[in-house]
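3.2 Worked example (two chains)
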Amino acid sequence: MTATALQAPAKYGRPQTHPTNVAQQSWIMVKRNLIHTKRMPEMLSDVTTQPIMFVLLFAFVLGASITNAGGASYREFLLPGIQAQNIVFTAFVVASGITSDIEKGVIDRFRSLPISRSSVLIGRSISSLIHSSIGIVVMALTGLAIGWRIRGSIAEAVLAFVLVLIFGFGIIWFGILVGSVMRSVEAVNGTMFTVLFPITFLANTFAPTEPMSHWLRVIAEWNPVSSLAQAMRELWGNGGPAPESAQLPLHHPVLATLLWSLALTAVFAPFALRAYARRTGG
């Protein structure tokens, strides 16, 4: 009995481990988050059923009363705006995921592993972008079904989709900050709804800004969401350029969106990393 017990470790030795780099660790975290979504498919409702509902409601309810939509049909005007709103809500997904992991002690388990702390955030960010990309595809297919079309070149169309993801990466840092600061998922939900809904509606997402009062129009047109929506409209050929009376960002929407994305990252990333480290003791 003793000899067998002593020989067991030699026969059934520990599995070999191999060192991994940050990229490999981050990809493992991405797969972990995607598997979690696969096992709970109801988590996809915000990027499957909700996009279809939003597109149909706005297209057939608001669209019935809006006749002037920047030189395009309202449905073509609408799709870029809803795509912009969808990618902004990526911050919501990230914040909820981080807070949930912290609450459940998952982050504490990760801290006990020989992995980079940054891989957890990178993995969460990439998986959230993948999550939101599903919504982008669903919205595009729904839009095609109701009459939306891409009228620009293939290169411009691809650039528009890439621009959405770049902006999503910038807004993710805001989600990381909120997820690291808030103490519960319920608090995250209240905060994100309070912040994100006004941002996505006080813009040119669902209606042109021209009829707004001057001060409100200035705020709306300097809103980063407006630049993103205008950039997609121009790249997809869904309407002409912004009117002369529009604010500067709408006259150069692609460049403005890139600058806004860099600014969001530069402003929120340091605070988000500091808040996450303080919250997790890392």
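3.2.1 Second chain
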Amino acid sequence: MDSPFMDTIAQGLGARKIRVVRFEFPYMERRRHDGKRRPPDGPAVLRSRWLEIVEGLGRAGDLVIGGKSMGGRIASMIADEIGARGLVCLGYPFHPAGKPDKLRVAHLETIRTPTLILQGTRDALGNRAEIEGYRLSENVQVEFLEDGDHSFKPRVRSGRTEVENLQQAIDSVVSFVDRI
């Protein structure tokens, strides 16, 4: 929750008067305490943590939930259930790396919650060419960050900078939150 990516996004949104609440899934909390890398908790544990966080924040209908990668994916799985105002996914894992046939989009085809997915054009977990072929709900808006990878970092030769892509992401989130 305090990676440079998350710090930049949270601070950028906070500076634009959007309150950001960060949390960690149980497996990451354990890593923070003992330093041991471990695989993510199962979907039921991840989902339960998200629901616990939402409950602690109060009225779900006032919340725009989301997250980076898996955090956004789990948020997308509970958004309709809790009646979230909106959903923002930063680098959605449309499929595992190197396995574009193992899609994680079924629920995104019918999601009712207004959704913004920000994705690097060359993200290994779902690039522009792949995503443009998916049938997503009309409530899902996908915006691409030019030459960005899964953390929106572009290659030097692209002429684009990571700072520019992160600023574009912040601007897009602010605009989305203002619209919904």
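3.3 Remarks
The domain at 4-179 is CATH 3.40.50.1820 (Rossmann fold).
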